[in-house]
Each structure stands twice: as structure tokens, then as C-alpha cells.
């Protein structure tokens, strides 16, 4: 058996095409113009690439977007002042501070300075709390939302499924846990201190790996017909390429469906950043959430 390769790039393009229509309708029917402001501190080359891709996608689908470049030497107070300025700007729908920030800046403080209704990353304490308690009017981290969309493109009804999340980060692992729980899955989180990772994984109908260890997940870890979502993006210098957390070539022989790296989860993260920006615009303008069903 060879599994289905989940084409995240194609699915993301389809989502963005539908979102383009929604944005046009939002402007014409509600006079709401989504606007995303991205703050980039320092000169990290990977961060610059991520931000450039985000801005390009935003402009293509009709979201006004600007990247604000700030020096590595900026003080925490100056960065907070800039965020507060954007919080007060009614034309700004979404604010994103590209992480990581320099070590002298408290990233948690920065995240929670952003207005929770403009927090398109979904990292603000208020949004996290609403996700955990099952409230609908919150912004959810983009990567887990993208992962969930990919899973449901294969299996619409997840009720009762056994799901494993490998990795417990605030960005992916923990919100992924709660999204799967919302779908009535039985969910476990595995991490660096977990024992018998392989044994736990062999019972899973769904595996989401976001631990950052190249080819950690092996073929004999996989229950036949499991759905495998690989969030990992690990550069292998001797191969001069990126690989995921999953041993893709072997695992695809036994799984029901699997995401490739690259081309799987990555494009979905950007697509859901765009969706979050439009959702934030709706939140701030009291436009019904059902408008955004795509």
C-alpha cells in the first residue's frame, strides 16, 4: 500500500482563492478592508524569508500588508510603544510580531501587548484561554489550524479517533491537542521526556509530529492506515535539503495519508494567517463569523 500524499500547497491555494472572493465581498458589502501589519526585529535571514512570503500572499488575495522593519537594538519599551500604536489604529486588522525576537526582549510580554482581537498568530493569553474553553470568538494559531484542515481533508469525522501529538510547544503542540479534543478525539501529547514513543504511536489513528527531530518517526511506529501530519522542518547539511520529523519514504508505505516536507504544512500556515487576518477584521467590525465559512 502507498499512502495518499496530502498536497498542502494545492489545498492552501484553493483556500486562498476562496478567501479572495470573501475579501472582495467584505469590502463591497461591509466596507471592511483587512490590513495586516508585520513587525520584524533584526536581520535573521529565515525570518525575512517567512515575512516576505506572508506579505506576498496577502497582497495577492487583497489584504493590505506592510512589514515594519526594526533594528536588533530596539528596546523592549520602544517595541511595546509601536505595538500600542498599531493597537489604536482602526485601519489595522491584524498585528504579527515575527518570532523569535532578540534575547533582551520578553516575547511573552510582547505577545500579550498585542490587542487580542488583532493577534493573528493566536498566541495572546486571552485567545489561548478561549481555545481551551471552547469559545468560538478567538484567533487560533495558524499551524495547528492548517494541520486540522489537512486531517479533515482525509477524514471528515474524527470522533472517537486516537490521536498523538509529538511536541508540546505553545505554537503547535498544545493548541493542536485542544483542536483534536474539540473533534472528540482521544488525544495524547508525547514529548522529550516521554517513554516508549513508538508503542504509543502504534495505537494512533492520527499522528501530528512537531518536535523538530529529523526522521524521528519510523515506519514501525505507524498503525496501518493512520493519517500522518509532519510539521517538522529540519535542514540536513550533508543532504543540502530540508526533511521532516517523519521518515517519509518508509512511512508512506504503511500510512493512509501523509504530508510531505516541504509542501505540506508550511503553505497551510500562511493560508490560515490570511484567514485569521480576515477573521480579525470581522471580529473588530461585528461581521458574522459565518461569513468566513469556506
Secondary structural class:
alpha/beta
Radius of gyration: 19 Å
Do you know the CATH architecture of the largest domain?
3-Layer(aba) Sandwich
Strand order of the largest sheet: 1-11-8-7-5-6
Which tags fit this structure?
294 residues; alpha/beta; Rossmann fold; 2 domains; 6-stranded parallel sheet; 3-stranded parallel sheet; 41% helix; 16% strand
Walk me through the structure.
With 294 residues, the chain is of the alpha/beta class. It folds into two domains: 32-120, Leucine Dehydrogenase, chain A, domain 1 (Rossmann fold, 3-Layer(aba) Sandwich); 142-266, Rossmann fold (3-Layer(aba) Sandwich). It contains ten helices and eleven strands. It has helices spanning 8-30, 45-61, 76-87, 107-113, 125-132, 142-154, 173-182, 197-201, 248-251, 265-285, and strands at 4-5, 35-41, 64-70, 94-97, 162-166, 186-190, 206-209, 227-230, 234-236, 241-243, 257-258. The strands form three sheets. It has a six-stranded parallel β-sheet with strand order 1-11-8-7-5-6. Helix 7 (173-182) links the parallel strand 5 (162-166) and strand 6 (186-190). Helix 2 (45-61) packs across helix 10, helix 6 (142-154) packs across helix 7 (173-182) and helix 6 crosses helix 10 (265-285). The longest helix is centred in the N-terminal third of the chain and has 23 residues, at 8-30. The radius of gyration is 19 Å and the shape is globular. The mean pLDDT is 95.
Amino acid at each position: 500500500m502507498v499512502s495518499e500524499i496530502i498536497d498542502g500547497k494545492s489545498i492552501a491555494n484553493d483556500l486562498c482563492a476562496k478567501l479572495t472572493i470573501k475579501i472582495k465581498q467584505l469590502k463591497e458589502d461591509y466596507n471592511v478592508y483587512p490590513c495586516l501589519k508585520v513587525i520584524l526585529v533584526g536581520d535573521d535571514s529565515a525570518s525575512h524569508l517567512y515575512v516576505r512570503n506572508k506579505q506576498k500572499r496577502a497582497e495577492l488575495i487583497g489584504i493590505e500588508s506592510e512589514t515594519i522593519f526594526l533594528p536588533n537594538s530596539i528596546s523592549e519599551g520602544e517595541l511595546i510603544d509601536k505595538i500600542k500604536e498599531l493597537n489604536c489604529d482602526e485601519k489595522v486588522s491584524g498585528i504579527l510580531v515575527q518570532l523569535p525576537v532578540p534575547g533582551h526582549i520578553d516575547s511573552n510580554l510582547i505577545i500579550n501587548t498585542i490587542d487580542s482581537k488583532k493577534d493573528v498568530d493566536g498566541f495572546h493569553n486571552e485567545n489561548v484561554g478561549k481555545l481551551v474553553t471552547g469559545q468560538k470568538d478567538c484567533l487560533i494559531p495558524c499551524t495547528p489550524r492548517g494541520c486540522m484542515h489537512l486531517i479533515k481533508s482525509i477524514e471528515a469525522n474524527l470522533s472517537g479517533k486516537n490521536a498523538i501529538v509529538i511536541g508540546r510547544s505553545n505554537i503547535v503542540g498544545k493548541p493542536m491537542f485542544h483542536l483534536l479534543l474539540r473533534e472528540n478525539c482521544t488525544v495524547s501529547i508525547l514529548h522529550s521526556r516521554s517513554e516508549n514513543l513508538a508503542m504509543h504511536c502504534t495505537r494512533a489513528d492520527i499522528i501530528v509530529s512537531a518536535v523538530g527531530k529529523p526522521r524521528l518517526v519510523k515506519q514501525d511506529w505507524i498503525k496501518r492506515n493512520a493519517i500522518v501530519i509532519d510539521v517538522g522542518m529540519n535542514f540536513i547539511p550533508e543532504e543540502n535539503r530540508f526533511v521532516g520529523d517523519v521518515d517519509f519514504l518508509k512511512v508512506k508505505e504503511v500510512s493512509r495519508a501523509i504530508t510531505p516536507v516541504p509542501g505540506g504544512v508550511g503553505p497551510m500556515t500562511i493560508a490560515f494567517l490570511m484567514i485569521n487576518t480576515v477573521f480579525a477584521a470581522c471580529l473588530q467590525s461585528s461581521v458574522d463569523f459565518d461569513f468566513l465559512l469556506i
